[in-house]
Amino acid sequence: MPTISAEALTEHVSRIFQAYNVPNQTAEVVATSLVLSNLKGHDSHGIIRVVEYIDWLEKGLVDANATLEVIEEKNTILIADGHFGFGQLIGRQATEKAIYKCQQEGACILTIRRSGHLGRIGEFVEIAAEAGIVCFSLTNTHGGGILVAPYGGKERRLSANPLSAGAPIDGNSMIMDISTCTIAEGKIKVAKERNETIPENAIIDGNGSPTTSPQKFYDDPPGALLPIAGHKGFALSLFAEVLAGAISGAGCSKPGITRVANGWFAIFIEPKAFCGQDFYQDQLQSLKTWVKSSKKQDGVDQILLPGEPEEKIFSERTENGIPIENSTWQKISKIAQSKGLIIN
């Protein structure tokens, strides 16, 4: 398993995308975003996605030249169309516009339709939190990407439909980035590449029986992911469809959609416009102190807020490099070699 620095990995990935006629700036944004996912420990949304993205480029499912279009802007509403461009670029462009509007108006409701795969949504709420903005978002896959069984069902009917949120706190950020199913499908891919098993009660096979085998998820008939917390996760997933699917104009989960894209619904809030900056900071700092003061269970060293585990991994991998599965690196190297590129 090679271990590669973030800088070298970013350069390699960017060069590959450029070789496939992706504009230099877009290639750099996408590469930086994918490597950042690896740095944060979210390997499921890291460079393992290069193989998939190149396939989409070759099939015309993502437009390398597309950029964000603002369809309508009024008061606190921002409605955008990504024209199936790379989601890492579309999401960043939309987030920056929403932050600016939020700073002017006190709040912004953003919707995006027809974005390419947005990748790790946590990146965008991190950008908002770093700007002092609280953000909460829901995502769907534009009707495609059906992976999750409804509560009580054994066939795929929904996508992973992640929820993400960010809040500035004590000079740092509290970040939530979770799917409404037990695990992200990308983690099944990683487990498959590593010849590892899936945690129990996360997926079912094509017959509806619980399994820990990642291969069973991809068999015929295919398996399915399960919603988190049973009926509760199922309900959250459905409302991701309502807001990120219907309200955004992207469309809800349905059969017959082969193009994986993203609809996004996000609320941006400027704390000082609602409760005042001093009150906000005081309450969040007190909350942090109160939560961390709890007596710890056996074997627990410290209580970590959402986002803190990622920051620990970020520090470790920035210093020591990013471990990449052999099979993933071999696939990426093969793609590079097909374009006459040599990556070490």
Characterization of the model:
The protein is an alpha+beta fold and 344 residues long. The protein has three domains: 3-62 and 321-338, Hypothetical Oxidoreductase Yiak, Chain: A, domain 1; 69-181 and 228-275, Malate/L-lactate/L-sulpholactate dehydrogenase, NADPH binding domain (Ribosomal Protein S8, Chain: A, domain 1), CATH 3.30.1370; 184-226, Hypothetical oxidoreductase yiak, domain 3 (Wheat Germ Agglutinin (Isolectin 2), domain 1, 2-Layer Sandwich). Helix content is 42%, strand content 17%. A hairpin with a 2-residue loop joins β6 and β7. α1 (6-19) packs antiparallel against α2. It starts with a strand and ends in a 6-residue tail after the last helix. The model has no long low-confidence stretch (mean pLDDT 96).
Give the gist of this structure.
Helices cover 42% and strands 17% of the residues. It has 344 residues and is an alpha+beta fold. It folds into three domains: 78 residues, Hypothetical Oxidoreductase Yiak, Chain: A, domain 1; 161 residues, Malate/L-lactate/L-sulpholactate dehydrogenase, NADPH binding domain (Ribosomal Protein S8, Chain: A, domain 1, 2-Layer Sandwich); 43 residues, 2-Layer Sandwich (Wheat Germ Agglutinin (Isolectin 2), domain 1), CATH 3.30.60.50.
CATH domain topology of the largest domain: Ribosomal Protein S8, Chain: A, domain 1
**How many discrete domains?**
3
- Tell me the strand order in the biggest sheet: 2-3-4-11-5-6-7
Coarse morphology: globular
**What are the low-pLDDT stretches, counting only 5+ consecutive residues below 50?**
none
Query: How many E strands?
Result: 12
- Total helical elements: 12
> What is the C-alpha radius of gyration, as a whole number of Å?
20 Å
Largest sheet: 7 strands, mixed
CATH superfamily of the largest domain: Malate/L-lactate/L-sulpholactate dehydrogenase, NADPH binding domain
Q: Give the helix/strand class.
A: alpha+beta
Share of helix, binned: 40-55%
CATH class of the largest domain: Alpha Beta
What's the end-to-end separation, in Å? Answer: 13 Å
Global mean pLDDT? 96
CATH architecture of the largest domain: 2-Layer Sandwich
Order of helices and strands: EHHHEEHEHEEEHEEHEHEHHHEH
